[in-house]
């Protein structure tokens, strides 16, 4: 597990140059006459996101960075600093900002800097050429920064290096490092307890694994809220017999993005030692093609007792999740949240940046949406429209894994999952892209843990 603390942050640097963080409309006179004269000569505009590096006798002496007035909670505002500052060590100075906002801005800056400094490569690890001195007020951002890096690393790792067993092993190691009790299920035990998930993995030589982790915060008791998280971990998706096009397979290493996200959420909760009980289930599997693979028209049994007719072998994610959701409901959690790179239909509706949120509980949905807005990590709610539920009914089985209509694919996928959730359990399903098609500040191209900050903020609100 790579640690941004070792690669782009430092505890102290005696020769670090200063980045003066100034809110829009703030008093630049506090920077000193020399700085102010240089800025005026250069025509510097004090607009949010603007950065000026001020020269000195031995090169760049300091920098000025403008942020939005009265805005906190947006780490992406600082995401460009690692690539725009000169090489070397830099320290942040928030003295020009209102004292009440300095701690929150420090957290935003640390997280945003780490998000912007993230790079993935296979080979020799290199320290990032620009490092930030960790401000004491910004330490609370480290759990999110570390979880974000781990989630991105898992999504970006090629499938030949990260199959079901490797994903499960990495999750187990990260969870146990935070004191969780972790079980890895495989073979006959997995087949018996998660038959639908097992069918998805039957076509691959790399056998499926299920991760089941349990953890309790030091301040939690037997009656503390139980949060249950479930993630789709399809390490590579060929589409099965309904095979994807070559272009459609290019990014299918990211099809375990839901598992990476839910693991990241769990690790943040554990690192923060939240006073709650936590369960995490990850279905780690590969959807491949062989004489053992499931076929269109097959009827599968599930943990919940429902039979499922396979209408399309490329709609495997919901088959991975359904057994895990059924098991999670057996403990009657206060909240049940799952995440998956589930449908292209969600991307058609909302594009790559907005995970689709479905929920059977308005209060839970609003808590997640409000938290996502606060954390500048947006989600968008789509309906569990009951009128489409009958589209999943089948004559030869209880339910089909795809609708018999060529519309509302994200909704019908969520309705399929809802069949395996107890009505009394407050449940939310997040359909995410888990990928950035191009680089923007704080979001380099490649795998990403979209909704991590929003969900983590919602968990904080639940206990407060």
From TrEMBL:
Record's protein name: Leucyl aminopeptidase
GO MF annotations in UniProt: manganese ion binding; metalloaminopeptidase activity
One cellular-component annotation, GO: cytoplasm
Alphabetized SUPFAM superfamilies for the sequence: Zn-dependent exopeptidases
Database matches in Gene3D superfamilies: Leucine Aminopeptidase, subunit E, domain 1 (3.40.220.10), Zn peptidases (3.40.630.10)
Originating species: Kozakia baliensis
Record family assignment: Belongs to the peptidase M17 family.
Listed GO biological process terms: proteolysis
Keywords for the protein's UniProt record, in alphabetical order: Aminopeptidase, Hydrolase, Manganese, Protease
